[in-house]
Amino acid sequence: MTKLTLSNKDIPAVAKKYCKLVITEDAPSWHRLVECEDGSLEYRIGAGKWKAMTARKYITFVRTVVQAAKSHQIEHLAIQAPVAMLPAILKEHDSQWILSTLAENLTIAAYEFTMYKSTKSKKKQLQEVLVCGGLSSAEKKAFARGLIVGTQVNVARDIANTTAEDMTPTNLGKAAVKAVKGTKASVKVLGEKELQKLKMGLLLAVGAGTKHETKLIVMEYYGAGKAKGNPTVFIGKGITYDTGGLNVKPSGHMHDMHMDMSGGSAVIAAVAASAKLGLKKNIIGIIPAAENAVSDRAMRAGDIVTAMNGKTVEVLHTDAEGRMVLADALTYSERFKPKVILDVATLTGAALSALGQHASAIMTKDEKLETKLRTLGEASGDYVWPLPLWDEYQAHIKSTRADLSNIAANFSRFGGSIEGGTFLANFAPKKVPWAHIDIAPRMEAIASDKLAKGSTGEPVRLLVRFAEEY
Ligand code: BES
Ligand code: MN
Ligand code: ZN
Prior knowledge:
By secondary structure, this protein is an alpha/beta fold. The protein has 2 domains: 3-135, 3-Layer(aba) Sandwich (Leucine Aminopeptidase, subunit E, domain 1); 163-469, Aminopeptidase (3-Layer(aba) Sandwich), CATH 3.40.630.10. It is built from 13 helices and 18 strands. The chain has helices at residues 55-71, 87-90, 95-110, 137-161, 169-179, 192-197, 201-206, 262-276, 322-333, 350-355, 367-380, 416-425, 460-469, and strands at 3-6, 19-24, 31-35, 41-46, 76-80, 128-132, 186-190, 215-222, 232-236, 238-242, 282-292, 304-306, 312-314, 340-345, 360-364, 384-386, 404-405, 434-438. Strands 7, 8, 9, 10, 11, 14, 15, 16 and 18 form a 9-stranded mixed sheet that branches. A 6-stranded mixed sheet has the order 1-6-5-2-4-3, with helices on one face. A 3-stranded mixed sheet has the order 12-13-17. α11 crosses α13. The longest helix has 25 residues, at 137-161. It starts with a strand and ends with a helix. Bound molecules: ligand BES, manganese (II) ion and zinc ion. Zinc ion (ZN) is lined by residues 239, 242, 260, 321-322. Residues 242, 244, 319, 321 line the site of manganese (II) ion.
């Protein structure tokens, strides 16, 4: 675990044990480690011209610094808070954004997942990053905020990186309890008996094929006071493993599906962060948690199941399970009288076909909400991009025998992400602003993210900003 601390000193004045990071205007790939006369180390790294440093570049640059320090096995690193050097960013954001983003990205770049390694790495670990410079109290507060958010991103990654055998629906519920421990947030976990009483037929059908009990995890945080104001509701897909069900996934497309609860882990972490930040907002998290398994008790293609809202669904494909569990969670969310609902899910491979792996897809009919999500996406680094939710798509999922089918009734592969969102639109409470976020493209880190392989922990940073600002 890397410790991140603030110092009032300027960088030349810090102790000898620190390797001093000197950021130059050389090309971004340039870097050099030099020994100073007093025996201390100086690490010079190019960041390109300061005036060309955009918010996006800054986010990855901060991560590059940590990656470079790790590869040089630097144990103590000191850096100067770069506020004054970032004129291009200061046109859009304030110095608090710079400090918060610094803390977030130092924290998430330092993360490594070692739970299943039988031996410790012999490499020297990055123990500490000291951020120097006289900061204002608002800047210090922003840095502290960034540490909390970054730490919760890492909590989401820990949960997603854990195997499906260890992160069952029951254990996902326990992870939610652990995440909010010591805060004002509360968690209740409903089991199959309660889900039957609630008539959550879609969630139960998805979880029917496994010995691991299906759960509904409900997190409540009333930072504004329970009677004061309708809550923001986050719903996260919590499929702890997705085999595809009887329409089993081909090999090479299954092993990553222990991360199919990434929407759920992001919601858990976002509620925990909101509570730890003490936001004066009411935030609800709902995570339908199930394993989509293969067995003689699993739902079949061709089965017809009844949702909590009474609509019947023909299961044309057992691998389109995410929208089924989310549908019942959307119906359940009505009882909280939401101000706004965001659902977050690793829903479709088609979202990767549409956007590649640089952004999550958002779908909403609410233009203001769409704009807000795009703006906050930019500010947080969890980038999102819209796809349409036009009524034309509803015809695709009209079933012959039931009300709806869970995939296109003609089995077309076109517009798969939109059909997922369109299915959900049939369950979203009426008249409540709602957006669907398909995070499948951002489930796993890619090289250009400059993060450890595995879960990205997205979109925790976006959800926290949304909780703060909506
Ligand atoms: N969990 C998957 C989607 C997924 C794929 C997430 C790749 C992350 C990376 C989802 O449950 C699924 O299987 N979707 C199907 C939908 C299809 C049957 C309409 C898909 O994308 O193939
Ligand atoms: Mn699936
Ligand atoms: Zn899935």
